[in-house]
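To: structure subgroup
Subject: Chain for Friday's discussion

All,

I'm putting the inputs and outputs inline so they're searchable in the archive.
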Amino acid sequence: MAAVTELCDRLGVVEALDRAVGPIKQRDRGFGAGELLVGLATAQWAGEDFLVGLERQRADVVGQKIAPVAGLASTTAAGLARRVTGPQWRAVETGVALVSERVLDRLPAARRNRLCATATIDLDASDVEVYGRKKRGVAYNHEGQRVGRPHVASWAETETVLAAELLSGNDDPRAHAAQLLRRALAALPARVRAGRVRLRADAGYFAGELARVALFAGVEFAIGAKRIAPLWRLLSGITEDDWTDAIDMDHAQVAVADYRPDWWPSNTFLLIRRVRLDICQVSADPRGPGGAGPCTPTNERCRWPSWPTPTASMLTRSSSPISMCPHRNKQHRWSTGSGTAPASRTCSATANTAPLYATCRRAIPRSTPRGCGARCWPRPWPPGCTNSPPPKDPKDNCPAGASGTAKP
């Protein structure tokens, strides 16, 4: 914390943000925009995830002595954040750009020259699940989660966020990608923009508008392509002689195809990569092979008994193997199979969309995920197994003929 405080002082982070954002109150007293943002960032750096964490930081008397911003309360931070307008939030990027210029001035010449020679802008969006029904600016995503979607353009070599937007869970990031790229380029130091700038984005940004903006700005780009029907047809026409071994990638080959949609730049090419996978890698189970023993009603966990020889019914395009557990419906797809259903799949699911996570009733103890409740747990089935939280009394819901010695 002392090092962070010293860095903020030497770079003038608070002053740079205040200058870019401007006043957020009529009277010039208390905390400004720079102190608000630095105080929140410091709390996050110390391990806090919510506004209430500011209260824990205030209670740390020694920590407040060496923190860059001391005494910031959660209620104060929330009230100040409401005062910041949309243009002022975007002006924060100007303040960060000014701080980046100061960092470059203080770097050794060799490091500075490397950063100015090549810069990579990463576009990425991630979902952050929330649990309050009245939270504003959030929506349900395709997995049934109530989420906000941070949309970020970062300078990969320095891990610095250049531009960002907070979208809701049902917003398409492609609609904002071109504008975000322009703002990211403006936030790069001028010496870096004069060098080689590249753009890197995944298949969620497969849009011609983003490619055209990058082309007109002189930015090289690599954008993931969605597996649309024309690409599947193109793949069938590539011969074995067209593939070559990829550099620094095990069991991978690449091929170049002269294909582009009509609305993409004319000098765009399609780079195709294929990787040879072991059958044990094609699974929805993150534990991999050999992670469990036989699945029986008396076993502590209900997992795969073995990794059987693949059949045509298992190798589907959805890459979701059929569950081999004899105590489950054979039509159910394999999910996690452990004693706990992951919160990311069930906490915001409704009664008719929540997946089944059936486990043997002698599975390890677990609790219902937050925000879920009984609606996420269908009725117990079959006899000897349950997909609801274990009862307090081991004898409750005990199937007929069971010994009653199971642990809850």
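Points worth raising on Friday:
Residues 288-381, 385-389, 394-408 have pLDDT under 50 and may be disordered.
DSSP finds 13 helices and twelve strands in the chain.

D.
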